């Protein structure tokens, strides 16, 4: 079985590099036609933009060492028994030119989304299928995927995972396109946006077990994590770009010049930049904001975390709560709790690991890691006895089966077992 895993991995690499022979292309087509359960994975692994983003983040990381460390934590049978699940049945194999990034395809295939785990275990899958057929229970737990709901300005909603790829929606002078788990907002050609369009808002909401990417009207990119929402105008106008966040998102904000005014003209050629402001929604309704001009950063604002965390990857960020504010540098994290802001140095790669296929584990305790698992796998965590101390060491691939997540937890002396019927992970002391 592992030989077949290696073979298919090799074929996908050659597909990305446009080096498939006629016979190899036929072999890949046959494999793709075997079944059709994992479209989102195939779209992501062959998406040029996704590969570029992952390579940019992994550029300074010893990826092979990380992967080997993770594999050492697992019983060898978990990999030896891997099952291949075919993708895109009866669909034509399209070649995509990738240039230089194709050379890194083998690394991406192994580490970006836990490819080996993604294929699952043939024995466990057969058993799970049999149990489901005999009992009629359908509680199988799978990793999260591209799932979200789009709420339009008139209040109507669209389940994005049910919308065909490359579908388009028109709102005023804005065109929204769904491509490979992303929503892209663009101004329609030969059209002039009305100033009033800045008052028309859309909301993208992900459930537990979902994620989605959005390209905003100004070209800024947002990765929305599970159990999160982003509210934004279908067109930015004026001297500010404002969005509202609940949950967690990673932002790559474009620089944007402010519209020309007499005041700007008086600055002897200097052009002011339009600030990008993330308003953070909290149950208490307090005024919390993150203000940037053009930068890469992550905001985690889940209510259950108790602390709003803004982590800077690149550029400059100002975090504000009421009359208090702090400016942070790359590699720093602003922690906002009860109106107070503190600054900490953090492992930024771990914080944004969720955007590159890993569950962040670098929190203060095991409970932090378990909450990440809870949101991504849409399960509930129950503690029996004393809660475990310490933190998790290693990596947790987001594409790993829930059974392998349990194995990794136990390999780190976290006693955990799964009650699949109740979608519950029980952690004991």
Automatic annotation (TrEMBL):
The keyword Transferase does not apply. It comes from the Bacteria. Pfam families: FecR (PF04773), FecR_C (PF16344). Keywords: Membrane, Transmembrane, Transmembrane helix. InterPro entries: FecR (IPR006860), FecR_C (IPR032508), Ferrdict_sens_TM (IPR012373). Residues 204-318 form the FecR protein domain. Residues 366-427 form the Protein FecR C-terminal domain. The chain crosses the membrane at residues 101-119. PANTHER family: PERIPLASMIC SIGNAL SENSOR AND SIGMA FACTOR ACTIVATOR FECR-RELATED, PROTEIN FECR. This is FecR family protein. It comes from Niastella caeni.
